[in-house]
Amino acid sequence: MSHSRIAVVTGANKGIGLAIGTPTPTPPYPIHSPTSKLTPPPVRQLALQYPQSSFNNGPFLIYLTARNQERGERALASLHDDPLLHRAKALAHDGGLSEIRYHALDISQPPSIRAFAAFLQERHPHGIDMVINNAGIAMTGFDTTVVHQTLQCNYHGTLSATLTLLPLLRPGGRLVNISSMASHLNKYSLPLRARFLAAATVDDVTALMADFEAAVAAGTEKAQGWPSAAYAVSKAGVTGMTRVVAREERERGRGVLVNSCCPGYVQTDMTRGGGVKTVDEGARTPVLLALGEVGGRAGEFWQGERVIEW
């Protein structure tokens, strides 16, 4: 089947506890995947909402990607048997527009990202339409190992996936980076907050991440105005990097909208059941930014389907 629209969702497996994009450390560093329980809901919601969206101009292919093939294929099988998708006749095997396929992708490994991009270019030489970068980890504890591995996956991995997949987007496409409410800048000293807000290049944001890692290694992060929280800083990096990339993309004039968002306080294993949103509710903002009408907004930080102050 020829597909009119192509989407990619990274980290799109359902397995809680899977270290998406990093080798599994030994105790005492258990990993939780805070965004993985958003999937397959983002994938499911893309399939459900595509027919009513302005992007609908024919068959829709969604790549569900994950590092772990077994879990990725299990998530794919769950979607093929999903009662909501079946009742809505959203999938091609039920007469709908959407097809979902699994493809391996480890965002912590640049060769994996490059191989996936090469695959997309070969299979879809005319480009793709949307990317939701959902892969990420949250590790228990706080030390140099936790900081390094968290930044490598959440910041550097998301950055690499963003810069590699962005050129594949057709004019008018969308790229969404999943960040977090933990990325808010109210936890930082005024000088650090000013640096985040003034970042003009990706290198400026990357330098902030390097400074944080160095401060942790020296045991001076609190004195320098950083929070002692690897996940929070990594997601601040994602939000800051997304702002810069969106600005650069806007200058290219292709009409590609790049945004970051927090899905909200979702009921996942990471929140230990303390979340107030279901996984499908958590998928609303990312899917809005991928498919919906957002008034041409780009470089913004979204939560609850609206722009909020970072």
Approximately what portion of the residues adopt beta-strand conformation?
A: 15-25%
Low-confidence stretches: 14-39
Summarize the amount of helix as a percent range: 40-55%
- Number of extended strands: 10
The total of helices stands at 10
Largest sheet: 8 strands, mixed
Over the alpha carbons, how many angstroms does the gyration radius reach?
18 Å
**pLDDT average, as an integer?**
89
* Topology pattern, helix = H, strand = E: EEHEHHEHEEHEHHHEHHEE
Helix-strand category: alpha/beta
Shape: globular
Strand order of the largest sheet: 4-3-1-5-7-8-9-10
Alpha carbon gap, first and last residue: 42 Å
What does this structure look like?
There is one protein chain. This protein is of the alpha/beta class and 310 residues long. 40% of the residues lie in helices and 16% in strands. The protein is built from ten helices and ten strands. The protein has helices spanning 41-49, 69-80, 83-88, 110-123, 144-165, 190-198, 202-218, 230-252, 279-282, 284-291; strands at residues 5-10, 31-32, 60-66, 98-104, 128-133, 138-139, 169-178, 257-262, 301-303, 306-307. The protein has an eight-stranded mixed β-sheet, sandwiched between helices. A two-stranded antiparallel ribbon has the order 2-6. Strand 9 and strand 10 form a beta hairpin. Helix 5 runs antiparallel to helix 7, helix 5 (144-165) runs parallel beside helix 8 (230-252) and helix 7 (202-218) runs antiparallel to helix 8. The longest helix is centred in the last third of the chain and has 23 residues, at 230-252. The radius of gyration is 18 Å and the shape is globular. The model is unreliable at 14-39 (pLDDT under 50).
